[in-house]
Amino acid sequence: MKKNIIHLFFIFFISCTLFAVSMVSPCRAEENLNYRLKWLFNASVTGDILAEDQNLFAEEGLNITVKAGGPERDAIRELEMGYAAFGVASADQVIRARAKGAPVVVIAQLFQINPLQWISKNSKPAINTVEDLRGRTVGITYGGNDETIMKTLLSRAGVKENELTLASVRYDYTPFYMDKIEVWPVYKNAQGIIIGEKLRKEGEDIQFFNPVNHGVQFVANSVVTSEKMMKEHPEIVARFKKALLKGWHMAMNPANQDLALTILQRYNKNTPKALQEKQLASTRELVWPDRSKEIGHIDVKAWQQTEQIMLEQGLIKSGVNIKTALIIP
Amino acid sequence: MLVRRISQFFIVYGAGIGFLLALKSILGLSDYVIPGPLEIWDTGLAVAHGYLYDVLNTLGVAMVGQVLSIIMAFSIGTAARKSSWIGSFIKAAAYNIQAYPIVAVAPIIFILLGDGFAARLIIAAMICYFPLLLSVVSIMSEPITDIEHFYLATGRMRWQLEIKIRAFENIQKLTTVISGSATLAMAGTIVAEFIAANAGIGHAIRIALYQSDLAKILAALFLIGIFLSLYQGTLEWVGEKIINKWVIVDQEELP
């Protein structure tokens, strides 16, 4: 009896393993390829959904499905598991993954300015320097990028953590509205717009504290693929990138605003169009701040600084020479 | 009983890790997707102290939440055992409230109570309470006709006696329901911590998830499993002692 149970358990274990293996199939060229975003459909992904909606991938002979991301989605894991051929990941994800041997490469950097900034009310004392944070209550998401960025800002400015109060924050902004937390981390082009609108209705104005202005560049969302895809199907990668960046060019061109907003409404019906218009305008400033550079430009120095920051904060044990993972044409 | 519980947990956990490592090896996955055994071990050692405190913190809240749930479920369940309007109303309300996903209700609780102990306790109790209430109501509303008939016929039946008879006859079911609800209380507390709290192992898992660190999550699951097995095993042991004592007392009382 006992022997039978052990046999059954063993058979079940092997079956589970085989089933899991059979579910994982490597991406093949010319098949339907998935492009996994980092977050849900919103203004931050306008170029991605525009490329799909306007058949720009199809024009390049590609069958691409753009899939929404989310807090528990990880495009890099999906690349390795073969569930996606392309994805969007933040720089810290890429660096962590490379540090653990994940064969991931960056083919385009979508945001030239990190949308992750801190919002505060104008009625409160202005924050012009990092030193101005002394004595204030500053929100951070423990484990998130904002924790890394804020701690780097503080350490570089010589401000000790016990000189201010770091408060844990999530998605509920009540402590900010109630002034329990004065400085709150937001994505400037998403929640930043929503919170700003709410406060303006109450007669309150807002300001953003941008880490870049204080010497800390931490790269945000970038387009990634696997080394295998890059090596075995470089032409697919090139066509994908061409179609995607064409989508972003169209989306970021103010002349195409109506088209971009119509598509955004189709993918995200829950956000009012007026709000999306403001989010789109803000996204433009973050994706294409310098017209002399192309959309998708990979800022190598910013990537190297991101790696340096992660080393300083102990998020990776040793350097990964991130430059080797950046595919620069 | 405790040893059996722990050894069963080790088998399940070992099989889970074995499955992940087999998958990693067959598919040639990097340590980012599935960490290697050495990384799991090193990470486990590195976070053991902090996570141990977190798990105990979570378990403490879960235990208080479970006790609250048991008291509430037994009070309301026994009151609602009669098939009266109140009884059916409580059952319907419990079914309806149970149908709401806790992640939808939790933000309201966190807005009202903040992200401290009270919010975690209430969410743990909510997840644990309703299934417990429904079990208690269904157990306590079932008449033990053979025994109750005698007291009813002789006019000696009182509500306290009715509860005692039904509890005694269903003691095995009740202790099983109580020990089973420990898992719900623990799960409820972890969910609460994951969503919004700033302490406990759910909060630690959330941070590990932000950092894409599966090794930390596996270490957290190991400690959760160990302590939950210990707690459930203890509850079962206590339940068995109560059953034995009650049966002996009852037999001694027999003429």
Describe this structure in words.
Helices cover about 45% and strands about 15% of the residues of chain A. Chain A has helices at about 1-25, 45-55, 55-60, 75-80, 90-100, 145-155, 175, 190-200, 225-230, 235-250, 255-265, 275-285, 300-310, and strands spanning about 35, 65, 85-90, 105-110, 115-120, 135-140, 165-170, 185, 205-210, 220-225. The radius of gyration of chain A is 22 Å and the shape is globular. Chain B is an all-alpha fold. Chain B is about 85% helix and about 0% strand. Chain B has helices at about 1-25, 35-80, 85-100, 100-115, 115-140, 145-155, 160-170, 170-195, 200-210, 215-255. In chain B, helix 8 packs across helix 9 (about 200-210). Chain B is elongated. The chains are: A alpha/beta (about 325), B mainly alpha (about 260). The interface between A and B is medium-sized, with 31 and 28 residues.
Short note summarizing the structure:
The complex is a heterodimer of chains A (329) and B (255). By secondary structure, chain A is of the alpha/beta class.
What would the average pLDDT of chain A be, to the nearest integer?
Answer: 90
Instruction: Tell how many strands the DSSP assignment of chain A holds.
Output: 10
% residues in beta strands of chain B: under 5%
Percentage of residues assigned to helices of chain B: over 70%
- Overall geometry of chain A comes to globular
Low-confidence stretches of chain A: 24-29
Number of domains of chain B: 1
